[in-house]
TrEMBL record:
GO terms for biological process: peptide modification. It comes from the Bacteria. SUPFAM superfamilies: LanC-like. InterPro entries: LanC, LANC-like. This is Lanthionine synthetase.
């Protein structure tokens, strides 16, 4: 994403335009099965809107028409699936590939719109329980494993808690829209259903609170987490992303107790050397950059005594040290590559929210 450097004065618009030309040089997919926030037409539209440049109004209008068509197609299929009382696949609703991501792009680009409200209405319907094989399951329970597996541990499907691929993504979008005054019938109840389910899987350890990223059918039935300890503290599946989604939900519902619980969970995470040691790269998705930037966003909305603001300088130093020791990611992209890491470093330098609001695509922007 070339815009932050140009808009902050440390890069050039000429360079940014060259990257835009490269981005649009080949065909850009608008196929409903392929296009999503991080791929195809919605991805290009998000990037151009983040530029804040008047010169791209005409292509934006064309992209908007394609996005409307593919969104309506995906919504129709999702509602038909619910009508059949079938379980979903992750890519129907998640942030990376699904309707949560498309809704996030709509919110970023237009604010309130009829199409966004349709996405929110679908997400509310997604949260309603569904009966399957004798079990009453959350409506977002996926019929396969996280990578499409149907055997072994994932024979009964899975419940995904993560921000990137799980129910924390819809939670963050529903909450962010509500905080901006964009509501549809049942929105507060849907937020409550998701947060109640996440609270059910909250694990208390000696060093703090954590959540598993995935729940198997056996764990759902026994209400027992088989994972022995916290996973890596990542944006995508770990405590940082889960804590931010729950903080946003608490802010939307004016629930001070839940807000403090979410903030304390992240504060405990960043103090836990055992969890920090699980980070093995500098990326936004599952590395140091994602932890640092998520912590910065949570701290900006946190209660004064959460301890997160005081932790930020140390986290910034840890990211710089990691990059000095091991270098930037080999990939060039936003989620797993150098672009994302550099955007986080730019936010560190300015110590302000990103002027382009690029992190709206991560559902970190409040």
């Amino acid at each position: 994403m070339p815009w932050p450097g140009a808009r902050s004065g440390i890069g050039s618009w000429d360079s940014a335009r060259q990257w835009v030309a490269a981005m649009a040089r080949g065909p850009v997919t608008a196929k409903p099965d392929a296009a999503a926030l991080f791929r195809g037409v919605p991805a290009v539209a998000f990037t151009l809107h983040a530029a804040g440049h008047d010169g791209y109004a005409a292509p934006q209008s064309i992209l908007d028409r394609h996005i409307a068509t593919l969104t309506r197609h995906r919504l129709a299929r999702a509602h038909e699936r619910i009508d059949r009382a079938e379980l979903p696949l992750v890519r129907e609703f998640d942030l990376i590939s699904g309707l949560t991501g498309i809704g996030t792009g709509l919110l970023h680009r237009h604010g309130r719109s009829d199409l966004l409200e349709q996405v929110l209405t679908y997400l509310i319907r997604l949260t309603k329980p569904i009966r399957h094989d004798g079990d009453l399951l959350p409506g977002w329970w996926c019929r396969t494993g996280p990578r499409g597996q149907t055997a072994s541990r994932w024979r009964g499907g899975h419940g995904n808690l993560g921000l990137a691929h799980g129910i924390s993504g819809p939670l963050a979008l529903l909450a962010t829209a509500m905080r901006r005054g964009i509501t549809v019938a049942g929105q507060a109840d849907a937020i409550e259903r998701i947060t109640t389910w996440l609270h059910r899987w909250r694990c208390d350890a000696g060093t703090g609170v954590w959540w598993p990223g995935l729940i198997s059918r056996g764990e759902q039935r026994s209400t027992t987490v088989h994972q022995s300890g916290p996973q890596r503290p990542s944006w995508c599946y770990g405590t940082p992303g889960l804590a931010r989604a729950q903080q946003l939900a608490a802010l939307a519902l004016a629930d001070a107790r839940r807000q403090r619980t979410a903030e304390d969970a992240l504060a405990g995470c960043v103090r836990d050397e055992g969890q920090l040691a699980l980070l093995r790269d500098a990326s936004v998705c599952h590395g140091w950059a994602g932890l640092v930037h998520t912590a910065r966003r949570v701290a900006a909305d946190a209660t004064e005594d959460s301890g997160l603001l005081q932790a930020l300088p140390g986290l910034d130093a840890r990211l710089r040290d990691y990059l000095h020791r091991y270098g930037p990611p080999a990939d060039s992209g936003l989620l797993e590559g150098r672009a994302g890491t550099r955007l986080v470093q730019l936010a560190q330098t300015t110590n302000t929210a990103p002027i382009t609001r690029w992190d709206a695509c991560l559902l970190l922007e409040g």
